[in-house]
Specification:
It is a single chain. The chain is mainly beta. The chain folds into three domains: 1-55, no CATH class; 99-290, Jelly Rolls (Sandwich); 295-379, Immunoglobulin-like, CATH 2.60.40. Helix content is 4%, strand content 36%. It contains two helices and 25 strands. The chain has helices at residues 72-79, 282-290; strands at 15-16, 26-29, 34-37, 99-101, 114-117, 123-130, 141-149, 156-163, 172-181, 185-194, 205-206, 208-210, 214-217, 222-229, 246-253, 259-270, 293-295, 303-304, 313-319, 329-333, 336-338, 344-349, 353-359, 368-370, 375-379. The strands form six sheets. A seven-stranded antiparallel sheet has the order 4-6-7-16-9-14-12, with no helix packed on it. A hairpin with a 3-residue loop joins strand 22 and strand 23. The radius of gyration is 30 Å and the shape is elongated.
């Protein structure tokens, strides 16, 4: 169909139609001919070259593919490193065990994550579960919470206390994580402010939520995020016991129903946008965990550990791989075999090492064997309150 262009006189830059119509090409008179109107002055199109936008380009979402455009907010977050204050976000470190069945409220499971609930224990298992190859990019395992009986709870949570409230004051923080379920259910995330222990610290409270923090978990992996303003801590009293304040990530699951949750990629970062989860260096992440809990390797065979011929002398000094948050509780697990029945040992822990003292009666040569599947634990976890 022929286009009925206007007749002369014509002026350079004249448009047809004069008022842009959606879905209809706009033409511009260039002094010699009508050309397809792609000038920015049309208010509809932007030329590939030469045009200048008069307003901001608003993108509908963060990029999900390599060559997609990104907002300034997204780039600023990524440029800042998107440092993850949450430890063991990819659920890879499991020093205690890889499966925990019907454990009590306040029990640490995979490193840095502990349970909290009221009512009775119920029937549930928290485990480190492998992911299928390419099931979720950059992740090999996840935390699985499989609950078949709630125990009459009004709340059930998985938490991590991130040390030192002072470094988060007046900041906006974003929590993000990946989750899916064997069936659909709803969960939520919150961020608590905790002011420490000792003396008369201020009571814990909740950081201010910006937007939504309740999510519909489906049978497909999704990434969820929630934004919180920590606010000022001016006027708050911190506890006198060092290294006990912080912000607490609180992941609430259905308290009174069966569910099967798969979760990984927990990230706590500064800013109001969730930047990509970058898999951590394995050695560094293990050392971050060991600030709070360190366990020696389970030995598959017995080892001779001590040899001494004087009473009440320190016969071994366990140098931890990482200085602990606080003086840890040091304990021995498994069994050992002394060379005589009068042998015993005591432990004097410090933040960087533990002195192991062997005692015996008389001037005996004193030694003992660590039996198979035995070793030492130094526990300096954040207190649960």
């Amino acid at each position: 169909m022929a286009i009925d262009f206007p007749g002369p006189p014509l002026t350079v830059g004249q448009k047809h139609p004069t008022t842009p119509v959606e879905g209809v090409p706009t033409y511009t008179w260039d002094g010699e001919k009508w050309i397809t109107g792609i000038s920015s002055t049309s208010g509809v199109f932007v030329a590939k070259a030469g045009d200048t936008m008069t307003g901001a380009l608003v993108l509908p979402a963060d990029p999900t593919a390599a060559l997609e455009a990104a907002t300034k907010q997204y780039v600023d977050g990524a440029a800042g490193g998107g440092f993850n204050y949450a430890i063991n976000g990819d659920m890879y470190v499991a020093q205690r065990a890889t499966s925990f069945s019907n454990v009590a409220s306040g029990t640490y499971t995979l490193d840095r994550y502990f349970t909290s609930f009221d009512g009775s224990v119920g029937t549930y298992t928290i485990s480190q579960t492998p992911l299928a190859a390419n099931e979720l990019a950059n992740f090999g395992v996840c935390l699985r919470w499989n609950q078949t009986g709630s125990g009459g709870s009004s709340f059930r949570r998985l938490l991590q206390l991130v040390e030192d409230i002072t470094k988060f004051a007046n900041k906006t923080m974003t929590i993000s994580f990946y989750a899916k379920g064997a069936a659909n259910f709803t969960m939520s995330v919150s961020l608590d402010r905790q002011f420490g222990l000792g003396g008369s610290p201020s009571a814990s409270d909740v950081a201010t939520l910006v937007g939504n923090n309740t999510f519909a978990v489906t049978t497909t992996w999704q990434r969820f995020q929630a934004v919180f303003n920590i606010g000022s801590i001016a006027g708050k009293t911190l506890g006198t016991t060092p290294n006990t304040s912080g912000v607490r990530i609180r992941l609430d699951v259905p308290p009174a129903a069966a569910f099967d949750l798969y979760m990984t990629g927990v990230k706590l970062e500064e800013g109001s946008v969730a930047t990509p989860f970058i898999p951590p260096d394995r050695a560094l992440e293990m050392h971050r965990c060991m600030r709070y809990y360190e366990r020696t390797d389970n030995e598959a065979a017995s080892q001779s550990i001590f040899a001494i011929n004087n009473g009440c002398n320190p016969i071994w000094d366990w140098l931890y791989q990482v200085t602990k948050r606080a003086t840890p509780t040091v304990s021995y697990f498994g069994s050992y075999t002394p060379n005589n029945t009068t042998n015993s040992f005591s432990i004097q822990p410090a933040r960087s090492h533990a002195g192991i003292f062997q005692s015996q009666t008389g001037a005996l040569v004193c030694y003992w064997f660590m039996n198979a599947n035995s070793g030492w634990i130094a526990d300096a976890e954040m207190p649960i309150y």
